[in-house]
Design a protein that fits this description.
Blueprint: E1 15-19, H1 24-35, E2 39-44, H2 47-59, E3 64-68, H3 74-88, E4 93-96, H4 111-139, E5 143-148, H5 161-180, E6 186-193, H6 199-206, H7 211-218, H8 227-238, E7 249-252
Parallel strand pairs: 1-2, 1-4, 2-3, 4-5, 5-6, 6-7
Helix pairs in contact: 1-2, 1-8, 3-4, 4-5
The chain binds hexanoyl-coenzyme A and NADP nicotinamide-adenine-dinucleotide phosphate.
Length: about 270
């Protein structure tokens, strides 16, 4: 289990669905939440990855369920919710973490390529959010949601335009619904991670030679993020310690997004040589 920031029992008996919980940050969040006492449902397409997460959680003496789900399909999302209720009786937490992304020239994107990314990130988040919110409203005990976005929602993502557009839509949903569903005591926040070298992102985005090293030099804190750093941020947002926090986005990127000033050229400026 990962190292925990919050006291043991912080999420005791809370039922948490984590989409994309078989790999990367989703798996780290599943392990962290379980370590804090939550009952975990991991949902994505590849059952073998989900089952591996479940085995790790069960080996630590906690409870977990794997539900094969393509979040682009509302019927599969409905099944995810039904299986969660059947096993654990309700839902307290949803993390919309599932995503698809690749680097491509926008002029070459086929309609299918656009739909593949936007379908997972924006539509998938919406299907899961609405299906879970209906349950939370019916349960009458509130709920917590966290949407994993990316810092390029604020300044665009050249080369990953469909992902940036879809994540910007997810930020907007976070803001709209946090106000609309506050009356139901549902809190909704987002996390914008900076670059994190997970297995899939290393293969699809960062894997080329010394790219990670080069990119790290551009990050004020000098390194990529770790999955546990994102998991701890998410654990805080779904915990009672964040009971007055809703509709916001927590950026966890080592200062990367803000690194736009002239400091890096400082020594080359007139009078500084
Ligand atoms: C151009 C591409 C492409 C590429 C796929 N397509 N890869 N086009 N360049 N590199 C096109 C295909 O040709 C096809 O269009 C369409 O996309 C659908 O492809 P499929 O392989 O059939 O889709 P699918 O099996 O649904 O897979 C979805 C996927 C895949 C997004 C393409 O990469 C995936 O499953 N990813 C999940 C994991 C992942 O991406 N993780 C990274 C998250 S990191 P045609 O027209 O040919 O049919 C992240 C933020 C990073 O999100 C932020 C960094 C700072
Ligand atoms: P990852 O391991 O690839 O996680 C993405 C997950 O989404 C996978 O487990 C995948 O599982 C699942 N998924 C993809 N398509 C799906 C679908 N149609 N239905 C259900 N699940 C689907 O990548 P990660 O780096 O941990 O990313 C986690 C989150 O952080 C994502 O939202 C990503 O956009 C965001 N993010 C990552 C970075 C980074 O640098 N790593 C930076 C900013 C934001 P299956 O293949 O089993 O479906």
């Amino acid at each position: 289990m990962s190292q925990q920031m919050l006291p043991a029992g912080t999420l005791q008996d809370q039922v948490a669905i984590i989409t994309g919980g078989g790999t990367g940050m989703g798996k780290a969040m599943a392990l962290t939440f379980a370590g804090l006492g939550a009952k975990i449902v991991v949902a994505s397409r590849k059952l073998e990855n989900l089952e591996a997460t479940v085995r790790e959680i069960e080996a630590a003496g906690c409870e977990a369920l794997a539900v094969a789900t393509d979040v682009r399909d509302p019927a599969q999302v409905a099944n995810m919710v039904a299986r969660t209720k059947e096993r654990f009786g309700g839902i307290d937490i949803l993390v919309n973490n599932a995503a698809g992304n690749f680097v491509a020239k926008s002029e070459d994107l086929s309609p299918n390529a656009w739909n593949a990314v936007v379908g997972i990130v924006l539509n998938g988040t919406w299907y899961c959010t609405q299906a879970v919110a209906k349950e939370m409203i019916a349960q009458g005990r509130g709920g917590k949601m966290v949407n994993i976005i990316a810092t390029y929602v604020w300044n665009g993502g050249p080369g990953t335009a469909p992902s940036a557009a879809a994540k910007a839509g997810v930020l907007s949903l976070t803001q709209s619904l946090s106000v609309e569903w506050a009356r139901h005591k549902i809190r909704i926040n987002a996390i914008a991670p900076g670059p994190v070298a997970t297995e899939n992102t290393t293969r699809q985005l960062f894997g080329g030679g010394d790219l990670i090293e080069k990119m790290s030099r551009e990050i004020p804190l000098g390194r990529f993020g770790e999955v546990d750093e994102i998991a701890n941020a998410a654990a805080y947002l779904v915990s009672d310690y964040a009971n007055y926090v809703t509709g916001t986005c927590l950026t966890v990127d080592g200062g990367n997004m803000l690194n736009k000033g002239y400091l890096k050229y400082f020594d080359k400026m007139p009078g500084r040589q």
